[in-house]
Amino acid sequence: MLNRRSNTFGSWLSRHFVYLHVRQAGGIFLPGRLPAGKAGQTGATLRLILACPASLLPKGWQVRSLLLFWGFWFFLSCEPPVDNEIYEEKLVVFGNLVANSPIVDTLFVSMSYTIDDPHEVEEKWVKDAIVTIISEEDTFVIPPVSGRVGRYLDTTYSYIIQPNRRYELDVTWNDYHVTSSTFLPDEIQIESVESTVWECEGESVVVSPIDLHLDENNLFDIEIAMDTGIFTNLGMDTVIYREGPCYTTSFASVPMFVVKWETEVEPGMIRAISFAMDNNVTSSIVDTSFSANTFKGPMNVNENGDYWRINPVVWNLSQPEIHFGWLFFNYYGPHLILIQATDHAFSDYFQGDPFRQNQFILPNSNIEGGYGLFSSVSMQYFLVYVAQDETEGQ
User: Fold this and answer.
1) Per-domain residue ranges for the chain?
2) DSSP states of 181-229
């Protein structure tokens, strides 16, 4: 039986929310903060990771699709689509619901941009739309955010989104009217499991389970720890980041630990988000090898010559077991790991052009009469400490 724990996500987020900007291409960034490589990130960044749909993280953030090992190479060998969509100006709406929490995500409403229009042009944001979310039991009118044109948010936090239910979205502005719906994914359960399918230099390797401490940490305490830099009061196991041919060369490298997920209803996809809570450049895992540059991308260098990589790391997955190896971690130290089950609208959105190789191809939007995405997720989270291999070089 997989471990099920009480959900503190909703109560914590009902007190802590961050406003986000949306680019019409789907990117979200936090005003006044850079997404990676900077010291002193606080709970505001944590709220960005938790509150926004992970589908809409900044383009610079490391988001990759891991369908199957061979699927990665298959996609890279394919020719990108060349058929262009005929552009028509419409409403653009982005919104996301999180199971067992209030409506904590900002909904964004604007008019669409042509390919040549600069993003973030203020006249494109829609300030007086009527935004409504409808369930079987009730209708929620989402008011505009004061001083933030085009943003709509329910600040009462009085409606708790339920899993395994359908929610409809209705947006009206002048002569424009769009609708959409999302079916909330089932509650997700997770546990760390033993894995015996690995080899290193011809010898079998057993990957042991770790304690996820699922009932020990709440998001309020995690934010305090991030603000203070003191993580000793949080429950987490330690794993060793080993380097070498067996551990840091490919998707098939031996992982540090394995997590199995389970839902009663199959989700659209699973997303695993690994967020380094102390991502100082001094904690950066410096690896400029060919394998690291190939699978993680080249390292960034700041004005002081310090090396750093993107934080967080986000993977789209389909397999029932998640192998947490070197590709999930760019920093030593404590990490917040989120496992999200998405709805099918989310997974469908990226099927049209999954690697964003053709800017003229529109994603598979579920906004009827417009563009954008109305999606939903359920999630679990845990902490893990990534330690340097003290035996390296001995």
Assistant:
1) 9-60+82-185
2) EEEPPPPPEEEEE-EEEEEETTEEEEE------TTT--HHHHHHHHHHT
Task: Could you list the beta-strand ranges (E) of 8-69.
Answer: 21-22, 28-29, 62-66
**Distance between CA atoms of 59 and 198, rounded to whole angstroms?**
33
**Which element (helix H / strand E) includes 70?**
helix 69-77
Number of Cβ within 10 Å of residue 75's Cβ equals 14
Give 240-296 pLDDT, tens digit per residue. Answer: 999 999 999 999 999 999 999 999 888 999 999 999 998 899 999 999 999 999 999
The predicted-structure confidence for 18-73, as pLDDT tens digits, reads as follows: 222 222 233 332 222 233 333 334 444 554 555 444 444 444 444 444 433 334 43
CA distance 237 to 257: 11
Q: By C-alpha distance, which of 189, 102, 209, 162 is closest to 381?
A: 189
Amino acid at 102: P
Q: What is the 3-state secondary structure (H, E, C) of 280-330?
A: CHHHECCCCCHHHHHHCCCCEECCCCCEECCCCEEEEECCCEEEECHHHCC
